[in-house]
Structure formats: C-alpha cells, structure tokens
Amino acid sequence: MSVKMPEADQAILGRRAEIVKALRTIVPGEGVIDREHEMKPFESDGLTAYRQMPMVVVLPETTQQVAEILKYCHAEGIKVVPRGAGTSLSGGALPLADGVLLGMAKFNKIRDIDFDNRIAVVEPGVTNLAVSNAVAHAGFYYAPDPSSQIACTIGGNVAENSGGVHCLKYGMTTNNVLGCEIVLITGEVVRLGGKHLDSEGYDLLGLVVGSEGLLGVVTEVTVRILKKPETARAVLIGFPTSEQGGACVSKIIAAGIIPGGMEMMDKPAIHAVEEFVHAGYPLDVEALLIVELDGPAAEVDHLIARVETIARECGAVSCQASQSEAQRLLFWAGRKAAFPAAGRISPDYYCMDGTIPRAKLPLVLARMKELSEKYQLGVANVFHAGDGNLHPLILYDSNKPGELDRAEEFGADILRLCVEVGGVLTGEHGVGIEKRDLMPAMFSEIDLNAQQRVKCAFDAKGLLNPGKVFPQLHRCAELGRMHISGGQLPFPDLPRF
User: Fold this and answer.
1) DSSP letter, residue 92
2) CA–CA distance from 15 to each of 39, 81, 99, 162 (Å)?
3) For the purposes of burial, counting CB atoms within 10 Å of the CB of 3, is it exposed (0-12), middle (13-18) or buried (19 or more)?
4) Helix, strand or coil for residue 348?
5) 293 Cβ partners below 8 Å, 6+ apart?
6) CA distances to 250, 258, 371, 391 from 253, in Å
7) Which of the residues 16, 213, 357, 360 has an alpha carbon 20 to 30 A from that of 120?
8) Is the dihedral of CA 444, 448, 451, 456 positive or negative?
9) What is residue 188's three-state secondary structure?
10) pTM
11) What is the mean pLDDT of the chain?
C-alpha cells in the first residue's frame, strides 16, 4: 500500500478477544463478524487498489446499538470506521487493522413518505434508487443520481455529498437533505434539521453532509423529493474534438440555459459504452455531449432547438434528440454504465474526481492528453460537463510492474491541474485516502488546522475514521494550545477560566 495509514495500536490488538466479546453483548446473534475469511468482503471499498483487513466488523440494526457501540469504543479508545455499501471511490471506508468497521447495511427501511411536505425519511442503508422507486407511483423522485445509484446508499451519499448526472439543475446531496439523526462518538444522539426547509442557529447539517464519517454516524436522513417534470428529452451531440465539446458546454450555460443534466464522453469511453449497452451512440466522433432538457413540452422543444443551434456553431457534426421516454432512458443508461464498460478496454482503471471552472474544459482536456503521453497510459474521459466535475478513467494493468504507481502519479497530476486552473480536488467522491496527501496543494496549513479543529469539536480523541482527509493528523490538544512568549500568555489582562 503506497498510502500510509496510522500505525496499528498493538495494545488494542492484544485486547481483540475482549473487544469482540463486548461488542457481541451489544449486537447479539450474527451482528459481529470476526473470522478473517468472513471479513474479506470488507477489506476495501470501490478504490480496490488499497486493501486492509479490519480488526472486527459490527452490523448494528438500531440507533441504540450504534450509540452503545460508539460509547464503548470512545471509553476504550478504539477507532471506528463507518461504512455504507462500500461503493466509495476515494478509500473513505478503508478499514483499520486496529479498528471496528461499523457497517450500516441493516439500516435499510424507509420510515416515512410525506407527499404533502415533499419529503421522505429513510435509514442510511436505503439505496439511492430505492427512494425514487418508492415514490414513483405518485409522480415523484429523488434528484441526486450517482452512477452507482442502484447500489450506493443514502448514508454514503451524505458522507461524500454525492452528485450525479442531474445535479447541475437540481443540486448535490447537500441541496436535497433537510435533516438527519447522527450519533456522536460519545454515544450521544443528535437530531439536525427536519421536515422544515430551514433551521435555526448554525448550519450543522451542512457541516455533516460531506464530512466523510469523521464527525459522527448518520442513522436517519430526511430527504427532499421532487415532482417529475412534465417532459424530459435528451439530445446526443457529436463533435470532431473534445475541445469543441467543452466549448459548447460553456456556451450553453452562458446562453442562460440550465439543462437537467449535461454529460460528456470522449472517444474511448463512447466506444466502450456502445459495445456494452448499445445505446445508439455515434462512433465516428471524438466527443459526445448528452444534454437533457426538462419542463413543459413547449419549453423543452424550444430549448432543444436553441441547444442544437449552439452546438452547430461550436462545430457539432451530429445531433439526435430522444423521441420517447424509453430512448431517453437508453441514452442515460449508456452514460451510467460508463465505469463498468471501461472494463472492456482495460484490465484495470483508476477513476479520478476533480472539478474545474467550465470555461477551462478545453484547456484541461488538452493538458490531459499530454499527461497521457507522458505516463504512457490511456485515459477515457467521462464527466459531469455542466458543473465541471471530471471523471477521467486512467487505464492500466495491475499485473504489469509499475503501472499502478504510474496511474497514481498521473491521477495526482490531473488533480493538481484542476487546482491550478481554479478548481478543486474533489466534486463528489470525497477526499478519503486517495486525495488526502494532495490537500496541501489546495489548502494552507492554517486552513487544514482550522478544519481539524472542527473535527476536534465532534471527536476530541480522533477515533472516527482516522487517517482519512487530513495529510497530517494533529492531536486536538496541539491544535488548541496557546503560545507563551516571555513567560506571558497572550492578552494577560483578560480573565481566564
């Protein structure tokens, strides 16, 4: 493993049998897994290049069990790694050798659907797609739709602030979550937000969404559900170059058009997807843009004509609008299958996640071609073009010595490039361990220390998901210490408590 994780606490490992016994009193039956071969499925998440067996796996079913587990671990100084479905692509759910892996898969019930208030209350183990399926009969859906929506869970979406193909118009997870129940490492159960649109005081809910399991364990989520638009149609637009496709994205937004979704793929991705899904993608283009317009039928027809005009002005060589709902879904099925389809063209791939200003798309795509030649590795580009969220798939073969290392270096250079042009290290996959050591490329030491102080306010002992996000984890006492100069505390005239 090229990424260094915290050293295992040998004293904790020496107490493993005692810890397992204590956990079994909290979660009886089959809720505790401690045999090595049975823990094997939990050794990694979607970033399979990194693997680590956990000390023990616990699968609670109730909030009370979660609270008792965390309270016990806090008292005994035991690390805890929360895990949803394990679809994270940043190593956010990578276990620790001396830690408890807290699996939330049994929290899989939809507790309430309130169509009048347009909300659903769900447990964190409910899959993303299950929410939309549960409300579809009434003409509603849940907007954030990651490509892994058939498997990824709402709890994991909250942890990573997941997006999806429709986040351009309808927002990320943070824009669609109204409340949650969270258990702190001390075992205290806290409720943030609720059915109402706004809450008083500090926006702690906004802090929790995207916190990657570092602040607490989510046991209930209140999500916003939306009415399905009257009409939705997707347009496939082919371009001779990726740069022209990137320029078209910026011009569509600049024209005041906000599509429901706007995705882009380059030639390697197009061919891999078409062979896999047979979605009807053109194979004689270098870049393919999928633009979805939704709303009243007359408005959609008008916007499609405007988008096609802009596309032709940018050099598009083909435009095809969906003529039925089945065809629209087929167009999107290809895009959502892009990651598994990449397995047809490479033994392994490394999926990156960075975000850039839309206007920089042509520059960044050109620079990525240069990096591909530098590292002698192929790359298939699939990304949320509308909001500049890139997902380059770096193609490599782990059986060839040195290729994984080159893929990692290639990926790091792509992320540095994102920051260089005014973007950020991640759009929706999170930092985890994958981008942890690149955080100084974007944040100063002062910035990182400020973020760690927030972590300390929730988890003073640093037991929740340690080794993730921060390249150097300080003790909370170090971050809060006062500097003494000449034997004097700062502002000696102020009263101290």
Assistant:
1) T
2) 18, 18, 12, 37
3) middle
4) strand
5) 232, 233, 235, 257, 259, 260, 299, 300, 303, 304, 307
6) 5, 6, 28, 20
7) 213
8) negative
9) coil
10) 0.91
11) 93
d(CA 237, CA 245): 8
Residue with tokens 């910035």: 447
CA nearest 273: which of 339, 332, 341?
A: 341
Nearest to 365 by CA among 383, 345, 344, 347: 383
Contact 417/408 with Cβ under 8 angstroms? no
Q: CB within 8 A of 253, min separation 6: which ones?
A: 358, 386
> Distance between CA atoms of 18 and 401, rounded to whole angstroms?
42
Q: Do 193 and 174 form a contact (C-beta atoms < 8 A)?
A: no
- Please tell me the distance from the alpha carbon of residue 423 to that of residue 439, in angstroms, as a whole number: 13
Can you count the helices (H) and strands (E) in the chain?
17, 19
Spatial CB neighbours of 234, under 8 Å, sequence gap ≥ 6: 261, 290, 291, 292, 321, 322, 327, 328, 331, 332
Give pLDDT tens digits for 282-332.
999 999 999 999 999 999 999 999 999 999 999 999 999 999 999 999 999
Do the beta carbons of residue 199 and residue 186 sit within 8 Å? Answer: no
pLDDT in tens, 109-151: 999 999 999 999 999 999 999 999 999 999 999 999 998 999 9
Question: In what side-by-side order are the strands of the sheet with 79-83?
Answer: 32-33, 56-58, 99-103, 79-83
Domains and CATH numbers, the chain: 10-103 (3.30.43.10), 110-227 (3.30.465.10), 231-340 (3.30.70.3450), 348-438 (3.30.70.2740), 445-497 (no CATH)
Cα atoms in the 13 Å half-sphere on the side-chain side of 150: 4
Q: Distance from CA of residue 338 to its chain's centroid? A: 17
Cβ-proximal residues to 464 (8 Å cutoff; 6+ apart), any chain: 79, 80, 82, 185, 213, 214, 215, 216, 217, 458
Residue with tokens 């270098």: 286
169 and 263 Cβ atoms separated by less than 8 Å: no
